[in-house]
Amino acid sequence: MTRTDVALAQPSVAQTADATRVAVSTVIFTLRRLPGSERFSVALPLVTRTRDPHEGQWALPGGWLDHGESLEAAASRTLAETTGLAPSYLEQLYAFGAVDRSPTRVVSIVYWALIRADEIPDGSVENTAWFDATTLPPLAFDHNEIVDYALWRLRNKVGYSRIAHGLLADEFTLAELREVYEAILDRRLDPANFRRQVEGSGTLIPTDRFRTGSHRPARLYRYNQDVELAERGPLSTRH
Q1: Across residues 51-60, what is the average pLDDT?
Q2: pTM of the predicted model, to two decimals?
Q3: Among residues 22, 15, 11, which one has the least CA distance to residue 102?
Q4: Is the predicted pLDDT of residue 128 greater than 90, yes or no?
Q5: Out of 3-7, 63-67, 101-105, which region has the weakest mean confidence (pLDDT)?
Q6: Is the dihedral of CA 229, 231, 30, 79 positive or negative?
Q7: What superkingdom does the record give (predicted)?
Q8: Domain locations in the chain?
Q9: Residue 179: per-residue pLDDT
Q10: What does the DSSP assignment read for 162-199?
Q11: For residues 92 and 108, is the Cβ–Cβ distance under 8 A?
Q12: Of 5-19, 89-103, 213-227, which gets the smallest average pLDDT?
């Protein structure tokens, strides 16, 4: 629904009067430094709608589900087409299908993704801009509600999974990991307590390498790859 350049063969008015269409949208988060600060914030890309409804408003990247296309494939395709992004982590978030969310009946299957800042291609994409996830303008359709739900899921999931890995390099210091947690939770964390908690979680593996700089060398860690980034339970990949 949110893809700004969708061009589909339109069925007759009689055929579409009671039809329900399926769209796929994606909320993709990254971390960016706040202006004039050393702190990070959670940011996401939005696209400008170029046609009604909501022409000129910002919206989540997305588009229609093509015939014979899986939902995850549609999420990856529409995200690449609208933003040029190809995240390694993509998970289904929720289905939004309120009757009055669009002038016509549309159910949106929403995915969410994480991407590191160094994975974002250089150069801007037409009609696309990055926004702080907590201070968004009024968005098209129910997209403010969707982003709020995605942020809630991210903040809940960071407490019991290795979701932060999607925003980190393969190896990282505990201070870098804490910065990710602080950005997601939007609050400061006590460094000593944080160290005790993550080292006792069993999800981190210390390496024999160190980050050097102006401070004393900091040990590099990596995540235990046996812990899944996204827990799909008994579902197969054919969804």
Answers
A1: 96
A2: 0.85
A3: 22
A4: yes
A5: 3-7
A6: positive
A7: Bacteria
A8: 21-158, 169-223
A9: 94
A10: SGGGGGS-SSB-HHHHHHHHHHHHTS---HHHHHHHHH
A11: no
A12: 5-19
Which position has the token pair 């269409």?
21
Closest CA to 108 of 27, 13, 170, 14: 27
CA-based nearest residue to 95, from 32, 1, 19, 225: 1
- Topology (CATH level 3) of domain 169-223: Arc Repressor Mutant, subunit A (1.10.10)
Query: Measured between alpha carbons, how far is 207 from 189 in angstroms, rounded to an integer?
Result: 24
Q: What is the pLDDT of residue 97?
A: 96
> What is the assigned CATH class of domain 21-158?
alpha beta
pLDDT in tens, 20-47: 999 999 999 999 988 877 889 999 999 9
Q: Is the dihedral of CA 46, 42, 28, 96 positive or negative?
A: negative
